[in-house]
Amino acid sequence: MTTFNDSDPRVADERETTEGKVFTVQGNDWDELLHDLSSTPAQERIIVNMGPQHPSTHGVLRLILELDGETVTEARCGIGYLHTGIEKNMEFRTWTQGVTFVTRMDYLSPFFNETAYCLGVEKLLGITDQIPERANVIRVMMMELNRISSHLVCLATGGMELGALTAMTFGFRERELVLDVFEMITGLRMNHAYIRPGGLAQDLPEGAEQKVRELLKILPGRLKDTADLLVDNTIWKGRTVGVGTLDLAGCMALGITGPILRSTGLPHDLRKSQPYCGYENYEFDVPVQTSADAYGRFLIRIAEMGESMKIIAQCLDRLKPGPVMIEDKKIAWPAQLAHGADGTGNSFEHIRQIMGTSMEALIHHFKLVTEGFKVPAGQAYSAVESPRGELGVHLVSDGGTRPYRVHFRDPSFTNLQATAAMCEGAQIADVVAAVASIDPVMGGVDR
User: InterPro entries under this entry (predicted)?
Assistant: First the structure.
């Protein structure tokens, strides 16, 4: 077992504990440690902590690795370092305010968090079929843009961790283009709270459609740079082919979804099997591979970005003028508000309208914003296909203006179970590639 020593970095101290002999090491003393270990009984082992501060653990993930030389004999995940209490906090906020919390869970795919939650609320309210067509089309467009940006981060960070620094440069370069679109439409690059129960916070601003069309012209060529760099690259394949393997039986036993599952050859995608937001009206394919390894998952994410661009193009063609919030004023959060001259708050025209219409209209607006609407008692489960797999939410209502219970099935949390199966028996260097192919986001794991 190894720990860290703040004294002399050149000396591997040792001491006896109830678990056996412990060597305390800190950089530059690996040779000395191996020399000391050579005189110890064969059953001695080395336990290395990778993370939670390690740059290749995708956030504050701790990996406890038991090593026999360079071979991983046991791998365990230590989570909980980023616990936010989001699910519990939502019990003290209105149904609409909950969107502001859920968008911060998996911070690389906020629109999927928001959509899954809103679909659940709308199911409890019984208004699923009343959501305006334009709102659904915009939801799909934003989610597919978000799928591209999320996969770009996965490829960029995964490339960086394996030494392909140019892949990181390309990935974040393209992601900036997508985030510029998000900022134009929602006002924020992340944590948007744009998708609301009943529709959207506001319609697309002027020029948004044109900006998305321009993005669709740029992205294919830019994404080709990453593909040309890594696909069939001998060094890249040497680090990813046959690494982090998990077959279909393993995926089914562990509840694994997303690119990991599709890399086994099973084309499972909720957009096809359980369509939502009108996905049944779009033409796209579900990319699969049969290698069940890190390289296959890489190829799937490359292909999925191309399919997402197809869907976005169809969304632009389907956009028709119309409302982006349901008509029921007992539920509909105001979605067509102009802003004041300073860019914040409601415009004078809107304030004059709700104050001049009737006292009842003013009271209703006040209660809707401060107290929120009531949701009939019951429970519902809704799920979307996020970049990492099935993102589901179980909502329970007691008939009030706040959720009684909210629990998310985050794919990062579930998929992390595969770490041991992917890493045990492999080399320690392959752990980095395996975890990168899982693409966990700790914001979704520690809710």
Answer: NADH_Q_OxRdtase_suD, NADH_UbQ_OxRdtase_49kDa_CS, NDH1_su_D/H, NiFe-Hase_large
Q: Domain ranges for the chain, please list them.
A: 84-330+372-442, 331-371
What is the pLDDT confidence band of residue 2, given thresholds at 50, 70 and 90? very low
- In a 13 Å sphere around the CA of 52, the CA atoms on its Cβ side amount to 11
| Interior angle at CA 238, CA 234 and CA 243, nearest 5 | 145
Q: Residues 351, 355, 360, 366: is their CA dihedral positive or negative? A: positive
**In this predicted model, what pLDDT tens digit does every residue of 271-305 receive, in sequence order?**
999 999 999 999 999 999 999 999 999 999 999 99
For 344, counting Cβ atoms within 10 Å of its Cβ (0-12 exposed, 13-18 middle, 19+ buried), the class is exposed
Instruction: State CA 277 to chain mean position distance.
Output: 19
Element (H, E) at 287: none
The Cα 87–Cα 312 span in angstroms is 31
Describe the chain by its helix, strand, coil percentages, rounded to 5.
Answer: 50, 15, 40
Which superfamily, per CATH, for 84-330+372-442?
Answer: Cytochrome-c3 Hydrogenase, chain B (1.10.645.10)
Estimate the crossing angle of helix 208-230 against helix 165-186, to 10 degrees.
170
Alpha-carbon gap, residue 136 to 336, rounded angstroms: 16
- Encoded tokens for 286: 């579900």
Closest CA to 242 of 195, 297, 282: 297
Cα separation, 406 vs 401, whole angstroms: 14
Q: Residue 49 corresponds to which tokens in the numbers above? A: 């902590």
Question: Which pair of tokens denotes residue 293?
Answer: 């390894």
- Torsion, CA 245, CA 249, CA 254, CA 255, rounded to 10: 110
pTM of the predicted protein model: 0.86
